[in-house]
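3.2 Worked example (two chains)
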Amino acid sequence: MTVVQVLGSLPTGRDVVRPDFDAISDALQQPYRHLVVAGSHRASFPDRHHAATICDLLLNQLFPGFFADRETLERSAKPNDVRGLHLALETQIRRALRYAARSAGTASDDIIVQATEHADASIAELPTIQELLAGDVEAAFSNDPSAIDREIIILSYPSIEALAIQRFAHRLYRRGVPLLPRMLTEVAHSRTGIDIHPGAVLGASFFIDHGTGVVIGETATIGDHCVLYQGVTLGAWNPTGRDEHGVLRRGAVNKRHPDLADHVTVYAGATILGGDTCIGHHSIIGGKVWLTESVIPYSVVMMDAPPLRIRSRRVASEST
């Protein structure tokens, strides 16, 4: 059938039945009406847009001038910028606490005070976080021969943005702030391809090379001076993730993810699983390794080299 025939068979303006927009809107909202985020409470729910704004304000403070335009750079040393981050953070923490209170059916009288305390404590830790990030930049410079200077690492390496946001979100997570820490790290995940749960404990001088596809779970711990390459997973081992009734064990009280001691290097595509799995210090885990058991310090874990079959295409092409 030709395009003309198809178009000719379409109904004319009078024959078109318009959708019932009100009915469709009502049908789309119906499955969510029982949730806390619906109805009159949705304005108090933390939102993705402001989570991204917090990440931008945070990066501008931790790396003055590197994540901002010229106009912002000229104002970067002013304390109002820190106050702006505090205000945005306090507002979203307050919304997250109200969400949690409504979900639990508990009173929320002191939420404003709690939000201010959480925001104050998190802002006070910015200098410490900045010092840790300086160590992360040095680790990248020490391990990557393609880094011509430290500025290019801050400006272009995705791991720096992911680590900056996670190290800050981890402080919120550790203080018990609900929902928002995960939202912040998911902003970093969407931007960098690096997925680090805010509950993960990261040591000093941490370098993630390339980074795409790296996943670090909630209860993972990573020691000092560790290096991960792209596609590494520090994940949960399913057989230990459910109780005797097949129900998932949830939350950080259930140790599900592995531990890496100091000076561990994990190469591209390796998967290390399980809360009882510990990688001893100064160990090397090779690419594509699947590991669900602990290894002692100074171990080298490698896959056997697969057999290769190499043939010449020239012979095949000359015979045709």
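3.2.1 Second chain
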Amino acid sequence: MNKYDFIIIGGGGTGLAAAMYSARLGMKTLVLGFTHGTELPIGGVITTTNVVENYPGFIRLTGQELAKKLEEHAKSYDLVEIKNEKTLEVKKTKGGFSVKTNKREYFGKTILFATGTKWRKLDVPGSDEFENKGVSYCALCDGPLFKNKIIAVVGGSDSAAKDSLLLAEHAKKVYIIYRGDEIHPEPINMERIKKNKKIEIVNNTNVTEIKGGEFMESVILDKLHKGKKELELEGIFVAIGHVALSDLAKKIV
């Protein structure tokens, strides 16, 4: 069995940073990049972000660039190994833990769960049916597919705001549909939205259904918008937060 002092399950920013510190403390460290429930590459969720402007030390860079720098920093320590393997099971054993992946089994004296999150789904009729057929959770990944189309972002966070700004570079029109009185992005992003003529905010409104044929064609709202509850859309991007990927930790026996 492959033995390590420290096994980190999850290859996002937290996992990579932990690997740096453990190596500096002289521990033989393994980072397992994939976890059950996500197929994100090393770097994690940050790799799906178009522009990062609030990370200390960098004025502006892409999420992929930041992830690459974190990975390179962790790999600069000889005691760190990073493997793109999916963790399937963790068991308590004598003196530590066994970690089973889709390729092999490892032993670690200590385990860190840095499994992060996955996108929270929009739980309405049609959301599953039209996923990847108009319903998306990654503006950076899928934005170019919606060039000159009418689309919407559901959510009111800074992430939703940044998604709408990115999508406005491709789409003809972008609605931000939010259940609250007003969206809550960082002030600089709020100003950018106000100046962008392609973006329209629809507050105090929920999407209750997604409709279409082969691909999504419209959404049903719980309130009238310009006299109608049905809003014609060619795509909808969901930005309503994340769900913790903690199942592996809960199943330790």
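3.3 Remarks
The CA atoms of residues 24 and 224 lie 58 Å apart.
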